[in-house]
Design goal:
Layout lengths: L6 H6 L8 H30 L7 H37 L14 H6 L7 H15 L1
Helix pairs in contact: 2-3
């Protein structure tokens, strides 16, 4: 990751440092790396799907079909992640990154390290999930 602050320094930083230039730079690099990894993961899965091996028996075929289903699920999940990564990078540019889109409260370094694309603070996310559960029943 080159120079810049470490995860440990991020977690120990005083609250006043929240989303200062060094922190934004850390998350920008993290998201850019995640974007490259995601693109590579999609490409790898596509390559595997595009070139099926020679299969002579049923067990091989069944195993390959299962691997193909898994590869398709990975591609699907990774494809859904890309727009979230791009949206997070836009929020870094606009200065909104790290703050809950609904409450405006800080999302928090620990949560962003686990999920750098997070748009909501834990409280709002939990409330929204509870509402969803209530509407389903």
């Amino acid at each position: 990751m080159g120079m810049g602050i470490t995860k440990e320094e991020l977690l120990q930083a005083p609250a006043d440092d929240y989303m200062n230039e060094a922190q934004l730079d850390f998350f920008r690099r993290l998201l850019e790396e995640l974007r490259i990894e995601t693109m590579n993961s999609i490409e790898d899965a596509k390559q595997r799907l595009a070139s099926p091996p020679e299969m002579n028996d049923e067990a091989d075929r069944a195993s390959y079909e299962e691997e193909s289903r898994l590869a398709l699920r990975i591609v699907d999940r990774e494809r859904r992640l890309l727009p979230k990564i791009d949206a997070a990078l836009k929020r870094i540019s606009s200065g909104d990154y790290g703050y809950c889109l609904e409450s405006g409260e800080p999302i928090g370094i620990a949560r962003l390290l686990l999920r750098p694309t997070a748009e909501l603070c834990a409280e709002v996310k939990t409330l929204n999930e509870r509402k969803e559960l209530n509407y389903r029943h």
